[in-house]
Amino acid sequence: MKAVRLLVAALAALVFAVPAAAQDKFKVGYLRVMDDAQAILADKADLYAKRGIDVELVEFQSGTDLIKAIVGGQLHSGVLGFTNAIAWASRGADLKVVGGAQNGYHAMIVREDAGIDGIADLKGRTIASQREGSTADTVLKGVVFKQAGLAASDVNVMGVSPQVAVQSLVAKRVDGAFLFEPQASIAKAIAPVKEIYEIGEVWPFPCMVVITSGDVLKSRKEDLWKTLDAQKDAIDMLQQRPEEAAKYIAAEFIAEPTLKTLDGREVLREAIITEAIKTQVFNAALTDQERSRMQEIAGIMQESGALKTRDGSAFDVEAILDLSWQKERSL
């Protein structure tokens, strides 16, 4: 019996040792869009490992699900739209924006046969975009439509994933789609569509940021900073060597080695992704101008009722910023 008890105890120790080891991994959440390329590239090019941090990359289908995982303690950090952070922070969640990621590339891609030449022509039409409350949805309704004199109710907006948005556009279930990269480049390569607007050219803003919890900042700050260093390394590669970066991440976005274009050509997926990378503006730091734009977007959210404070005052974006990493790195 004693031998049996010892065996059971040894097995129990082995079983419980696995979760303990797994907890040592630093879990980073991401979305499969070019906006999160630095998080993906840092993993695929072993940049996290080179910085001495063992990272588990966890994919999510929406920023809402990703932020819930951070709030719930299942993730240590994530690259996602900052509107998710301020929406949850306004309800008491202990969240912090600790770094920049990507400045808002969102293109309005429409079918060539739809008779749409500008944003104002979308009135009464159906388009695909991100889910309601997302950063893309906020700037689409609060900036893009507003600049064109449209109310949010003037356009039927389907909130879906970027992949479904492309599928809906190609299948002619929608007249247009408000797309990230590389979905915008993919759509233009495989379907008779055209780009009529790109918000980064008209109204640049920090779309994706790095978000964590206050608890992680206290308990694993050193590990968090290592992930930020690795993502900064990835951003340097994306900006300076896009062809090299594309070799690491192309398969994450396009399953087949080649993509058949509208004119019948077979194009290497790396070529498509290289061009998509070049459309992006990545930045690991948050500038004064970008923080001002974040405050402006918070105001848009409050005006629409998507963001509320307990006393009705303006939400202070600075309250959820912790830029100690970028200050330490002199970015």
Structure description:
The chain is of the alpha/beta class and 331 residues long. The protein folds into two domains: 2-103 and 205-254 and 281-328, Periplasmic binding protein-like II (D-Maltodextrin-Binding Protein, domain 2), CATH 3.40.190; 107-202, 3-Layer(aba) Sandwich (D-Maltodextrin-Binding Protein, domain 2). The protein is 47% helix and 20% strand. The protein contains 15 helices and 13 strands. The protein has helices at residues 2-23, 37-44, 47-50, 63-71, 82-89, 135-147, 162-170, 183-190, 199-202, 214-219, 221-240, 242-253, 269-278, 288-304, 324-328, and strands at 26-31, 55-60, 77-81, 95-103, 107-111, 126-129, 156-159, 176-179, 193-198, 206-213, 258-260, 266-268, 281-282. Strands 2-1-3-10-4-13 form a six-stranded mixed sheet, sandwiched between helices. A hairpin with a 5-residue loop joins β11 and β12 (266-268). α2 (37-44) crosses α11, α7 (162-170) runs parallel beside α8 (183-190) and α11 crosses α12 (242-253). The longest helix is centred in the N-terminal third of the chain and has 22 residues, at 2-23. It is globular and about 55 Å long. The N and C termini lie far apart (64 Å). The model is unreliable at 1-22 (pLDDT under 50).
